[in-house]
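Pipeline run #58 for the internal structure catalog. This entry was flagged by the ingest filter as a single-chain record with no existing model, so it goes straight to prediction. Upstream metadata was stripped on purpose; only the residue string is passed forward. Reviewer on rotation: M.T. Logging verbosity set to normal.
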Amino acid sequence: MKSPRRLSKADLNLPCKEMAIFLLGKLLVRKLESGSVLKGRIVETESYLGGEDKASNTYNGRQTAANEPLYLPAGTAFVYMTYGMYFCFNISSTEPGAGVLLRALEPLQGVELMKKFRTKKNKGSLKDTDLCNGPSKLCMAMNISKDKCNKLDITESESLWLEDDGEAVEKPQIVSSSRIGINSSAGEWAKTPLRFYVVSSPHVSKRDKKAEDALTT
C-alpha cells in the first residue's frame, strides 16, 4: 500500500454522482485540537443532486443561509443538524446545490478515541462495525459538528481532509441502491439508486440484498 496522498481541488472537481462513487475507498481524516488524528475508510455514500432531486436540501434551487455550503466550490464541507441533536456531513460537488453525504466509515486510526466520543451518548461498549455505520454515528465518532467543520474547504483545511492510499474499489464491488430515509413525497426520487456502498464491507449502515444479488447476475 502506498503512502496516503491528500486529495486536491482537482480530485474533487466532479459531478455529484461521480463523486459519490469516487469517494468509496478514500480516507476521511480528522485532526483534533489536541493533535490526535482520527481516520476511517469511506464505505458508503449518497448523492443529492439538487435541482429536480426532490430529496435534496436544495430542491428546485432553494438557497438559504443553512445550505450555503452546497453552493460553494466542490470540496466544501456541509454539516447540518438532524432531529435537533445529530449531525450529518456532506461534501459539495461541481453542480450548484449538489453534494455527497458520507454514510459510513471503516474505522482505521484513533479507534479508542472514536469509541469515547460515541459512548458519551451511548452507554456500554461498541463493536468496530457499529462505530461509524451511519451518517450521524460517523459524525459523533469523528467529532464532526456544525460549529467546528461547516464550510471548511477540505482540500485546504488542517482539521478535516481526504486521502487516497491506493486501495481502489472496483466497479464489481459497488452496490447501487435507493437512499435511506427518503419520504415517499419525493416520488420517484425516493427509489432512485443514488446510494453506493462497498459490498464486502461489514461497516455499511444498511444492506440491500436484492441489489447485491444483482451484482452477481
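catalog note: The first helix runs from residue 16 to 22.
catalog note: The helical segments are 16-22, 111-119, 135-141, 146-149, 209-215.
status: ready for reviewer M.T.
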